[in-house]
# Entry
Amino acid sequence: MKCARCSGLMVADHLLDMQESYIPMWMHGLRCVTCGNIEDPLIHHHRMAQHTRKIRRNPSGFERAAIRPSVAA
# Structure
């Protein structure tokens, strides 16, 4: 698998989550050996949800040009 940031190699890793719960929790995830980017199931879920919302807002896939009011010089 390739890293989304740098296209480096992603390897399976065991991650310790100490912030989200009062009990330390181990989970499986992927870590890039080049840049250190981490992707676990929760991060992946949030990125997919954000991508889906972005597509729903702009179904054509094209960015709209910003319309600026004309300014007198």
Notes: Residues 10-57 form one domain. The chain has a mean pLDDT of 79. The CA atoms of residues 16 and 62 lie 40 Å apart.
